[in-house]
């Protein structure tokens, strides 16, 4: 299990040629790409390097998915307001976290684009080549899925680019980006194995690709397609994926490779590759994941997930997310669960309800599985009499099941509830807040609105 972690650390030294005076659509470089990508081993190291780049992609996801929402609030120290700007909807294009995310995302995309552009020129065993292609396509789809939800119109880069070309790469609209995401995931499903064993555990699979595809289709409102993709995952229940009996076991660091976690970003605790900005403890004395009182009160009284998620021993006004437990050293090594099987069940439930409410139908059964595990009574038609009420029940269940996993804000946006929900809780939220600003540094580099234009509401 630890093999992949060791290899990823080594692979981080692998880099691709870049240039400082460009839009940040390529990774930083220490080694020329012309001297690399010559052997199968090079490509193995390159794909592991791409996996390592996901740490930057997900290391701050709570800023966008939870602190932005009604779930958590940041620790504020002195004049450092970068995180507070996410919480109070005052974020500006010059925010450093916005720039870092953009750079991290395009660094990951550049890595996988180089792999996809070059791998067919190398003699390699076909199963290995296909697996690496599938991994690269999955990573690209995952990163673009984050980019399009965070920034909206972004450059859709599908090949290696260098130098001045990067400054001339125009934005694509979300529809084009989602088409590419679906295409990448469909191809990834063809190339990837259903599951992995031994030292390969921790890499992505066709199961993860189908689960992500279901999430993408749910986001775009394609509910029949979402159902189709998600049923390919539920068909594997018991053998490849499963809902663990106890909620806390999902996040037990000694049980990282359990059947509920379909795909996770892997971390070590070596002082370099620890969690960073995450759902557990960034640093013990400065947590970025204080639960709001509203989140605490969102749990039903008998819901075991509240105690397993929130540490309220300090005070109800200064609670800490405790789902993953504290790391004594201050650096966490809990893996980041990008997609869990409970998410698949709830997404399938939602997609069925959106196609038509069925009293006490399959959508109810799927929803009630996570409720029962949490020690709660099953919901019936009596409590949830229609489609609208079922939507709210799903939203509530997703909130408490996935608290501080980076999903809440995106759920509010895709269901178009972000303004009403956040306004009702005292936040000043406007329609344009569904997106974040394009980094100011990138706007200035390009200096051409026909190529890179700031999102509405953030022009200065």
Automatic annotation (TrEMBL):
- Is the keyword RNA-binding in the record? no
Is Signal a UniProt keyword of this protein? yes
**RagB/SusD domain ranges (all copies):** 331-458
Q: Where does the record place the SusD-like N-terminal domain?
A: 89-218
- Which keywords fit this entry according to its UniProt record? Cell outer membrane, Membrane, Signal
One GO CC term, this protein: cell outer membrane
Q: Where is the signal peptide?
A: none
Q: Where in the cell is it found?
A: Cell outer membrane
Give the source's domain of life in one word. Bacteria
* Membership in a protein family: Belongs to the SusD family.
**Under what name is this protein listed?**
Starch-binding associating with outer membrane
Organism annotation: Sinomicrobium oceani
């Amino acid at each position: 299990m630890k093999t992949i972690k060791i290899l990823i650390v080594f692979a981080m030294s692998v880099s691709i040629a870049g240039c400082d005076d460009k839009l940040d659509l390529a990774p930083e470089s220490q080694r020329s790409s012309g001297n690399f990508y010559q052997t199968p081993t090079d490509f193995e190291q390159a794909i592991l390097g791409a996996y390592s780049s996901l740490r930057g992609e997900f290391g701050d996801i709570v800023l966008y998915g939870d602190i932005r929402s009604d779930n958590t609030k940041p620790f504020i120290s002195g004049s450092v307001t970068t995180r507070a700007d996410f919480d109070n909807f005052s974020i500006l294009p010059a925010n450093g976290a916005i720039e870092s995310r953009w750079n991290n995302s395009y660094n990951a995309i550049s890595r996988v684009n180089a792999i996809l552009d070059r791998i067919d020129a190398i003699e390699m065993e076909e199963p290995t080549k296909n697996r690496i292609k599938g991994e690269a396509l999955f990573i690209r789809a995952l990163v673009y899925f984050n980019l399009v939800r965070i920034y909206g119109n972004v450059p859709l880069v599908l090949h290696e680019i260098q130098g001045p070309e990067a400054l001339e790469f125009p934005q694509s609209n979300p529809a084009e980006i989602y088409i590419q995401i679906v295409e990448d995931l469909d191809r990834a499903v063809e190339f990837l194995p259903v599951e992995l064993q031994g030292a390969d555990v921790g890499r992505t699979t066709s199961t993860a690709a189908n689960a992500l595809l279901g999430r993408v289709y749910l986001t775009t409102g394609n509910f029949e397609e979402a159902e189709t993709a998600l049923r390919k995952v539920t068909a594997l229940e018991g053998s490849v994926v499963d809902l663990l009996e106890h909620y806390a076991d999902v996040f037990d660091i000694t049980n990282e490779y359990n059947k509920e976690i379909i795909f996770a970003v892997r971390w070590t605790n070596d002082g370099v590759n620890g969690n960073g900005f995450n759902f557990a403890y960034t640093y013990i004395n400065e947590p970025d994941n204080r639960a709001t009182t509203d989140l605490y009160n969102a749990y039903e009284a008998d819901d075991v997930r509240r105690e397993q998620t929130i540490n309220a021993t300090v005070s109800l006004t200064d609670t800490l997310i405790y789902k993953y437990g504290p790391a004594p050293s201050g650096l966490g090594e809990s893996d980041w669960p990008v997609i869990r099987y409970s998410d698949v069940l709830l997404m399938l439930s939602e997609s069925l309800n959106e196609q038509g409410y069925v009293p006490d139908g399959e959508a109810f059964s799927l929803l009630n599985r996570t409720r029962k595990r949490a020690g709660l009574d099953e919901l019936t038609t009596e409590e949830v009499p229609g489609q609208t009420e079922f939507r709210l029940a799903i939203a509530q269940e997703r909130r408490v099941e996935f608290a501080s996993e980076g999903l809440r804000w995106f759920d509010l946006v895709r269901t178009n509830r972000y303004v009403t929900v956040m306004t009702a809780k005292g936040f000043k939220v406007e329609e344009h807040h569904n997106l974040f600003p394009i980094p100011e540094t990138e706007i200035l580099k390009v200096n051409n609105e026909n190529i890179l234009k700031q999102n509405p509401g953030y022009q200065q």
